[in-house]
Every structure is written in C-alpha cells, then in structure tokens.
Design goal:
alpha+beta, PH-domain like, 2 domains, 9 strands
Length: 219
C-alpha cells in the first residue's frame, strides 16, 4: 500500500483484465491462409513453365500478406487493459494510440450486440463519459461480464472520492467557525463565543452603541 503526500493510504493499482476483440475476427483470414498456401504450392509445382511457377508463387505471397498478415496484425494491435483505476485502450500498428479513462470520473456503460455477437456472447461495450463520442471496447468477449466489472470498479473508485471530499469539507468548516470569512463576522455565535461581546459588535454595526460612559460622567 502506498501513502500519498496528503497522508491518505492508496492501494496499488492492479490489472483486472486484458482483452482483445473476439478471436472470430481472424477466422476467415486463417481459412484464407490455408487455402492460399495449398493453391500456391499446387500451382508452383504443377505449372509447366518456370516463369509461371514464379508468378504463382509471387501472387500467393501477396495474397497471403493482404488476406492474413494484415488482418492478424490489425487484430493483435488493438487491445484493452482494465485496471482497478482506469481503462487503457491501445491501438494502431505504425502509429500507436493510447487512451485512458479513469473510473473515478464516472460513466455509463451500455452493451450493443448484433445477431452474430449474441451467438458468441460478445459485444460492443460503450463507455459514455458525457463527451460527444463514447469510448468503445469493440467486440469484446463476455461483454455482460465486462459491463458488470466496470460498474463495480466505478463504484469502488467513486466511494473514496466522495469520502475524501466530505472530509475536506469537514476540515474547512469546523463547528463554531464562520463560513462568512470575507465579511469578518459570525453568522451564528460559536460554542465558546462571548454573548456580550457579540451583542456589543451588533450594536456597533447598527450605530447604536449607547451613551459613552466618559461623556455621561463629564455631564
């Protein structure tokens, strides 16, 4: 456990889940890999002329790059990390993008599913923070479980924040102290305040201080 500068004890951040889009995204690229590999080997060995064999080999390599390597890299390049404090979204191949969202900010979590996603129990988890575009965890497996976990993490993160704010307010306004510090007077007497002194202050502000004892003696 870590202790911050303000003296409050914080639990260390830990990883709750590491997610990627559902693995069915690479099903058809994998099928294409098997088919293209077989076709490339067949034509590269069965064609009569050497230039035809080299052409078939080159075409097979290009198709494998387009239909299997790029989709696989795109799938591997996007993943989500959920910790006890935040959601981290990383995406991109050549240009990497990192996006973070703290649980303590508060958000709404919704799940959208298509027919195919319902069959595999996956879905798009939309995290709405009040901005124009919600943060989307696209096609994550076990979407309902992810939604429930995010709700629990948000609730656990907001409870300490609310307690900290209440503690700061209680320190700022202690019993018997004035909340109108700029006016220089108490809106209500403190527990240990002198009632006679408060009455004299009120008469002085009204201009009704009563007769001056020195003047009355002179008379």
């Amino acid at each position: 456990m870590n202790e911050g500068m303000s003296g409050e004890v914080r639990t260390p951040e830990s990883v709750v889940a590491r997610l990627r889009p559902h693995a069915r995204a690479v099903f058809w690229p994998s099928v294409a890999l098997v088919v293209l590999t077989g076709a490339t080997v067949f034509f590269a060995t069965m064609l009569p002329f050497e230039w035809q064999r080299w052409t078939a080999l080159a075409a097979g390599v290009v198709l494998i790059l387009l239909l299997w390597v790029l989709p696989m890299l795109r799938w591997l390049g996007r993943h989500y990390v959920i910790t006890t404090r935040r959601i981290v979204i990383r995406s991109g191949l050549a240009v990497r993008t990192r996006q973070e969202l703290l649980h303590s900010r508060g958000y709404d979590v919704t799940v959208r599913r298509s027919g195919l996603q319902s069959l595999f129990r996956s879905g798009d988890v939309q995290v709405n923070t009040g901005l124009d575009h919600p943060v989307v965890l696209a096609d994550v497996p076990s979407a309902d479980l992810v939604q429930a976990a995010l709700h629990d993490l948000m609730e656990q993160s907001q409870n300490p924040v609310a307690a900290r704010r209440q503690q700061e307010q209680s320190r700022r306004y202690r019993p018997g102290e004035s909340r109108e510090v700029d006016r220089g007077r108490l809106p209500y007497p403190a527990a240990d305040a002198d009632p006679e002194q408060g009455e004299r202050v009120d008469r002085a502000e009204r201009g009704d201080e009563g007769p001056d004892p020195a003047r009355a003696w002179a008379r």
